[in-house]
Every structure is written in C-alpha cells, then in structure tokens.
Amino acid sequence: MNSITLHDKTFVPFISYSDLMAATDKVSERLNAAHREDKKPPILLCVLNGAIMYTAELMKRLDFQCELMTIKLSSYSGTSSTGHINIVYDIASDIRGRDVIICEDIIDTGATIKFLRNHLKEKGADKIEICTMLFKPDIYKEDIKIDYAAMEIPPRFIVGFGLDYDELGRNLKDIYVLK
Ligand code: IMP
Ligand code: MG
C-alpha cells in the first residue's frame, strides 16, 4: 500500500482491510451470541455517512433478525470534532419501544454518541447498544459504555473505509493515518 494525498494532506497505510475484517468477524460473533434469542428484532442504526461500509460488512455476518435504519449526523470539520452535533436527517420510522444497536464508524470525544443516545431515548427507544468500528479511548470523555468496538486506535486522524477528510477518502478499502 502506498501513501495517498487528499486535499492538502498526506496519509499513510494504517489498518489493512483484512485486519479490519478479522476484527469485524469477532464483533459479529459477540453480537450474534447476545441477540440470537431476542424476542423482537433490534434496529441496526447506521450513522451516515461514515458508518455505511462498516454497517454493510457487519450486517451480512449477523444471523438474527434485525431491521436497518439510518440517521445522518454531522460534527466534524476538517480533522477535528466541533462538538456541535447536527441532525442532517433523522430516522424515518417510529422507534418507540424498540431495541437499537447504534452502528458508528469511530468514537472520538464521544460527543456524537452522547447526543445520539439522548436523541434515541427522547424518541422512545428501549435498550440502546453502541457498536463502533474504531474507538479512540485516549480521547473519549464520556462515561457511556461502548458495548462493541472492533478496534481501539491511538488519538490520530484517519481516513478510509467510510471515514473522510472533508468528504474525501471514504471509498478507500484500507484505513490510512495522517502522516
Ligand atoms: P466524536 O463526537 O468526537 O466522538 O466524533 C465522532 C465523529 O467524528 C465520528 O462519527 C466521525 O464521523 C468523526 N471522526 C472522529 N475521528 C475521526 C477520524 O480520525 N477521521 C475521520 N472522522 C473522524
Ligand atoms: Mg460518524
């Protein structure tokens, strides 16, 4: 894998697609074990745009019945979190009394996940779980438990596999880190 340039910045290879898939296999086994006996199908909530690729990879490994829903949030600008979360578009269906598995690309400060969890509670969700592809534990400030994290990474800015730098890089199959 070679380094790549997006806008004004150079990124170098960081996590290979195959390592990411091995970690996704493990998370899906844990999810399957936890949800196989569910009485009501949980909602897999894909947080757009970043979690789109990870949600797709995860979904095809799940062996319990589940529904897919989406929400679009924004908080990041360039390479840092603004802390101000906007709902670009909301979940289209009624989620009252439903169990929700939030599917995120990455958890950084935790501001987004805290906002989203409160939002889902206000909408009447029952049990809420958090499933993220990547987690930056050194930056995380909240006390909300992260139920499933495929991989933990150091506090560096990354792109690829859904994650962007000012909208570029989402299509990369592997994950790259800012040089
Ligand atoms: P938080 O609210 O600080 O936890 O940030 C969460 C959101 O910021 C994620 O859902 C991503 O969309 C974005 N984000 C956080 N870290 C990165 C990164 O390293 N690269 C690209 N986007 C990131
Ligand atoms: Mg995101």
Which tags fit this structure?
179 residues; alpha/beta; 6-stranded mixed beta sheet; 4-stranded antiparallel beta sheet; 10 strands; 22% helix; binds inosinic acid; binds magnesium ion
Number of E-type strands: 10
Tell me, rounded to a whole number, the average pLDDT.
96
Low-confidence stretches: none
**How are the strands of the biggest sheet laid out side by side?**
5-4-3-6-7-8
What is the structural class?
A: alpha/beta
Estimate the global geometry from the Cα principal axes. globular
Describe the protein's architecture and organization.
With 179 residues, the protein is α/β, with parallel strands linked by helices. 22% of the residues lie in helices and 36% in strands. The strands form two sheets. The chain has a six-stranded mixed beta sheet, with helices on both faces. A four-stranded antiparallel beta sheet has the order 1-2-10-9. The longest helix has 19 residues. The structure holds inosinic acid (IMP) and magnesium ion. The site of inosinic acid (IMP) has 18 residues, from strand 4, strand 6, helix 3 and strand 9. Magnesium ion binds next to strand 6.
